[in-house]
Design goal:
Mean pLDDT: 49
Number of helices: 2
Radius of gyration: 13 Å
């Protein structure tokens, strides 16, 4: 599965080992009403996994830090 991480208008191509990687926005919309508790745990997982993937897949070795305010993951199969 290939993911694209958008940061300040720049697209970074990511290779992820998580076959069940989700587009958080779509998934959250569909599951929030039926199970708020599960949604809460997914938010934690989402915020934990994405920075690890970004740092690992970074083309250079500089320490890049991403804020969640204007960054969002787009996951494509």
């Amino acid at each position: 599965m290939t993911g694209y991480y958008i940061h300040n208008g720049k697209s970074m191509r990511l290779q992820t080992l998580f076959s069940n990687a989700l587009n958080y926005d779509w998934f959250n919309q569909s599951i929030f009403i039926s199970n708020p508790l599960l949604t809460s745990s997914l938010v934690i997982v989402h915020h934990s996994i994405i920075p690890i993937i970004v740092k690992t897949a970074s083309s250079d070795n500089s320490d890049k830090r991403f804020g969640y305010g204007d960054d969002f993951p787009l996951i494509f199969p």
